[in-house]
Amino acid sequence: MPQERTGPPGGGTPPAAGAGPVPPARSPAPAPPGPSPEADPFDWIGERLEQRRRAGLLRSLRPRPADSRLLDLAGNDYLGLTRHPEVVAAARHAAHRWGAGATGSRLVTGTTELHAELEAELAGFCGFEAALVFSSGYAANLAAVTALTDRGTLVVSDAANHASLIDGCRLSRAATAVVPHADPGAVAGALDGFDGRAVAVTDAVFSVDGDAAPLAELAAVCRDRGAALVVDEAHSLGVLGDGGRGALHAAGLAGAPGVVATATLSKALGSQGGVVLGPARVIDHLVNTARTFVFDTGLAPAATGAALAALRLVRAEPARAARVRAAARKLHAGLTAAGLDATRPDAAVVSVRAPAPEAAVRWAADCRAAGVAVGCFRPPSVPDGVSRLRLTARADLTDADVAAAVAAVAGTAPPAP
């Protein structure tokens, strides 16, 4: 039976005996002048979209068919494993055994034995003490940066870092110093004189131009000043290092004190998800404090099983990493021979500069018409404001594929300004 209400309407403490009459409730203050109630609160979006359209920066979705005949140099399937029979079979088996979803956050029901197996094998392959799998590489980067910093921390961030690292810096509420690209001296200058906790964050391979960070020099700067180093291996796992073990492994820094790595499982491993690798106490700390781990649903079993199968293929076939790097070098050689301004690849990414955003969009569309899918990068996705086509090499590209890609890009290039 519901309890009888004895207080005044709306709750609160009833007036004491003899306290006199209860004053009437005051009416709410009138709303300040503003838009009429009939106004659409999203009217401003149309204006913003029109501004983007005029600037050549409007984006739209283009669903791809399962059986596209385009030569794909736009995606990030670096090792050609997304459709590998063993990877697909592992995804199917995991979904059949564990279900379509993880059913909850990792701390509740979202950690399966498969997740633990993947984490142990990722840590062993990359040379770290422990690993923690997330639902995406973006979530992994947010976790690493925000959980290892606070208001009293200094974060030193490369100007060309990926948006996920930038957002991690913003969400961390730490003081952030953005330093010139790939400049260990600038990192040292930012750290000098700061006597609190400090973290330097960088991509291992930068996503726009495909150049590698000077990790050995950055690690020395951090080590000498007591700072931690967080490195995003999204574009280097499976591509750089011994058999694809990553850029930190290649630099002799895997498992080093004060070094944490992040990576995605959606590029070289052809699946989905992300991972943070580092000392066991760092991983324990993330389990307890990283919001994108604690409050997010665990990675789906199919993606977990696919990533594990892909990792085992990378370990069993170490030549895949060398093949993707060779394909990138061939793309670069062909594009530069054709007179295009192409970046020299340190991993699998080759970028070609375009004269303007609109020209980049038309160029990418012309490449599609010629049978080749390429990435089109425009502001704000490019740190220097210069639009580009981005080509991503794959380990399964043939010489004929490379020649066709070069012919399509060079044959549709816009005239130089």
Automatic annotation (TrEMBL):
- Provide the E.C. number(s) assigned to this enzyme: 2.3.1.47
Q: Which UniProt keywords apply?
A: Acyltransferase, Biotin biosynthesis, Pyridoxal phosphate, Transferase
Q: Which co-factor is required?
A: pyridoxal 5'-phosphate
One GO molecular-function entry? 8-amino-7-oxononanoate synthase activity
Q: Transferase as a keyword?
A: yes
Q: Does the keyword Cytoplasm apply?
A: no
Region described as Disordered: spans on this chain: 1-42
Q: Where is the composition biased (Pro residues)?
A: 21-38
What's its catalytic activity? 6-carboxyhexanoyl-[ACP] + L-alanine + H(+) = (8S)-8-amino-7-oxononanoate + holo-[ACP] + CO2
UniProt cross-references to InterPro entries, sorted A to Z: Aminotrans_II_pyridoxalP_BS, Aminotransferase_I/II_large, AON_synthase_class-II, PyrdxlP-dep_Trfase, PyrdxlP-dep_Trfase_major, PyrdxlP-dep_Trfase_small
> Which EC main class describes this enzyme?
transferase
Mind telling me which Pfam families this protein's record contains?
Aminotran_1_2 (PF00155)
PROSITE patterns, alphabetized: AA_TRANSFER_CLASS_2
Sorted alphabetically, which SUPFAM superfamilies does this protein's record hold? PLP-dependent transferases
Q: What is the top-level taxon of the source organism?
A: Bacteria
Q: Name all Aminotransferase class I/classII large domain ranges.
A: 70-408
Q: In which pathway does it act?
A: Cofactor biosynthesis; biotin biosynthesis
**Subunit organization:** Homodimer.
Indicate the family of this protein: Belongs to the class-II pyridoxal-phosphate-dependent aminotransferase family. BioF subfamily.
Protein name as catalogued: 8-amino-7-oxononanoate synthase
Annotated organism of origin: Streptomyces desertarenae
